[in-house]
Every structure is written in structure tokens, then in C-alpha cells.
């Protein structure tokens, strides 16, 4: 897991930078974002199945040799996954200039992400039930073939979805046929000057905090249910499903939200839901909570985290504005903070988990996730509202559409 997180963290800004700089015959005809997405798809399809197979030709080798074997496929997979994610995200600023439309696209994208998670969840449940062994205690190394079948099904559906994407989605004439706004050397200057913009670090703080809330809660909710609350195995399956349903509600709410709903208001509403859930987790452990209210808490976590995540991604799109030459690099930087922080926090939590009391995971969810929620909310509320830079953009083409400030312009691009 740590290898994957580190590789993913390093790969995302690398892929983002080179995605922005790709300029050749194929990118001109096919689209540079789609070209990198295709590269990532091939990497994922060619490596992911081997992670779930036995070590080919080395099943009896030393475990360190097997680790290097599987690590090589994890390396290819994470690079491919970074290429898919960053190129797909960077398409949003290319496809829409209006910030409200970008929010809708981000919400739709996140909604399908939740549907994908539900699909994997349902397929796993069906396969385990059809084989007659769905009890958690019965799942072991001898059941590896079942998970290989799950992987093949998921890859098959993913391949079809990727083919449909590359067939019907176009980057548009604006990206592939427009005259470059700046030459290659100036493009390098723009990429590296990003680091001098304070707004970048605020948005990165929002995105990192939000990802901590979403990822840490998803990872440790099952352990909290099992070790702290002592719930039955059925609850370990149903309660995460309630979280996914809350996420779908948030995606729909963002899609239908009126234009008067600002980024800060959306993030504030999500933060309130998340904080209410984490405070509830810290304070309540009685019978009614375990039987009934835990489902309300799960929906609040799913809804609040998703609301925050969609808003943070929309803020990143606003950060890019209409100057999309560095959009993939910006998304790569955001993902870099996400992967490193989540990997480090999970490693630290697990380091102190051995021998801890049954309330350990309650404290993890309430304090770590609650603290990350507060941090993200503070960063959001203190983020300035930037006006377009007159030297870079005209009045009808702002670089950051929902941020303005009365002081000197501090826009990113």
C-alpha cells in the first residue's frame, strides 16, 4: 500500500506536467488529454490482473523476490492510474468555461465514481454469495480465484466504458486547434511560477484536508464498526453502503444546486454534516446508536465528504480558470498532497493500533477526520476571492471565476 501511495504521489505531478507539454502529431489529431488517458488505460489493463494472480514462475521463490515481482506491476498500475485520473480531471476546464457548468461536470463525474464503487461492491457480494461462502471469516488465500473473477468482470466493464469515452468524448476544437497562448519556454515559466502563488497552497490545503476526511473515514469505518461497536458482519457491509448512498445524494444535490450557492456555502454545508457525524461518533455508543442511528451517521459522512470533495475539485477547476495550459499539472499537484498525506496518516494510525483499546478507532474517526474537516473549512473560509489579472486575461475571460479580493491580484494563471 505504501509503495502504491508513494508512486502515485510522485507520478501525478509528473504526468500532469508532461500532459500539459505534449505537442506532437498524435496529440494534435487525437487530443493530448485523451492521449494520456489512453496511455494510462493501457497501463492499468496490462498490470492490474497480475496483482491478483500467483507469482508467475516464482511461486516458490523467497517472499522478498515475490514482493519485487508484484511491486513492478503496482508501479505500472499506479503510473497508469495517475495518467487516467489527471488527464480525465484536466478535461473539465477544457470542456467548460462557466464555473457552474464545471461544478455540474465534477458532480456528474463523482456520481459515476460512486456508481463504480457500488458496482464493485455488488459484484463482490454476488460472487461470494454464488460460491456459497460470504462469511468474512471464511475468506482466505484459498478464495483468491473468486477475487480474480471479480477483477476480470470489473476490468471488462471498465474496458467498455473506456472505449465509449474515447469514441464519443472530444476535447473540442479549442484545445487542439487554437494557437498557443505562450511558447514552450514561457509554458515552462508558467508551470514553475505556480509555486509562488499563495492561493495554490490554500486550495491544496482544502483538497488535502477533504481527501483525508473521505479516505480515512472509508478505510477505518469497518474497523470502528467491528472493534469499537462490536457489530455483526452484516453491518460491516450495509453501513458502508449507506455511506455510498449519502455520496450519491451529495452528487445529486451539487448537480441541482442553484447558481446562488457559492463554493464556500457548499463546502460549509458539507463540513457541517461531516462534523455532526464525527461528533456523534465521539459522544454516542449506546444500543439505539448501534442499531439505528449509526446509519444516519453513515449517510452524513457520505453526504458531507462528497459535498466537500466535489467543491474542492471545483475550486481546483476555478484555480485553472480559462488558461488551461497547466491544468493537468495543477491537478497533479493536488493529487500529490492527497496521496502523501493519506499514506502518511494511515501509516501513523496503524503504527499505534497494536495493543490499543477498543475506543481507538472511535478516536481516529472523530479526532483525525473531524480535525481535517475543521482545517479544510478554515482554509475555505479564508480563501480570497480573486479578480482576473488584467495582464493575463481580459474582462470576459477570467482565470478564476469565483475568487476575488480587494488587494493585489493573486490569480494562479
Automatic annotation (TrEMBL):
Gene3D superfamilies: MFS general substrate transporter like domains. One of its GO terms (cellular component) is plasma membrane. It holds the Pfam family MFS_2. GO terms for biological process: carbohydrate transport. Residues 388-413 are annotated as: Disordered. The keyword Nucleotide-binding does not apply. GO terms for molecular function: symporter activity. Residues 393-404 have a biased composition (Polar residues). The keyword Membrane applies. SUPFAM superfamilies: MFS general substrate transporter. CDD domains: MFS_MFSD12. It comes from the Eukaryota. Keywords: Membrane, Transmembrane, Transmembrane helix. The chain crosses the membrane at residues 35-56, 68-87, 107-128, 149-169, 231-253, 265-283, 295-316, 328-352, 364-383. Belongs to the major facilitator superfamily. PANTHER family: MAJOR FACILITATOR SUPERFAMILY DOMAIN-CONTAINING PROTEIN, MAJOR FACILITATOR SUPERFAMILY DOMAIN-CONTAINING PROTEIN 12. This is Putative MFS-type transporter C19orf28-like.
